[in-house]
UniProtKB/TrEMBL annotation:
This is Maltose phosphorylase. Residues 25-94 form the Glycoside hydrolase family 65 N-terminal domain. GO terms for biological process: carbohydrate metabolic process. It comes from the Bacteria. GO terms for molecular function: carbohydrate binding; catalytic activity.
C-alpha cells in the first residue's frame, strides 16, 4: 500500500484555521482513515477534569441506536451512529 505524498492530502498545523486544543484533537483523530489516537495533551493523563475526549478510535466502527419521534417525518433519520472509543493506549499501566 502506497501512502500518498501529495501536499493536497497533507494536514499541516500552521495551515489550520484554529489552534484551539479541541479543534486540533478532532482534526488529527482519524486522519489516516483507518485508526487514530485522538490527539490530546499528553500531560493530562487520566485527569477526569480534562474537557477533551482522548482515546483510540477506529474509523467506520460505530454503535447504532434507533431514534424515535412522535411521528414519522420525511428526511429525519431513523437511527444515529456514534464512533466507538476504545482504551487510550498511552495511559495503560501494567503492574505485577
Amino acid at each position: 500500500m502506497r501512502i500518498e505524498q501529495s501536499p493536497e492530502f497533507q494536514i499541516h498545523l500552521q495551515n489550520l484555521r484554529s489552534k484551539e486544543p479541541l479543534f486540533l484533537e478532532t482534526i488529527y483523530n482519524v486522519g489516516n482513515g483507518h485508526l487514530g489516537v485522538r490527539d490530546s495533551n499528553p500531560l493530562q493523563g487520566n485527569n477526569l477534569d480534562y474537557i477533551g475526549s482522548p482515546g483510540l478510535f477506529i474509523n467506520g466502527f460505530f454503535d447504532y441506536n434507533d431514534v424515535s419521534y412522535g411521528e414519522k417525518y420525511t428526511g429525519y433519520p431513523e437511527s444515529d451512529q456514534v464512533i466507538n472509543r476504545l482504551l487510550d493506549p498511552r495511559y495503560i499501566r501494567i503492574s505485577w
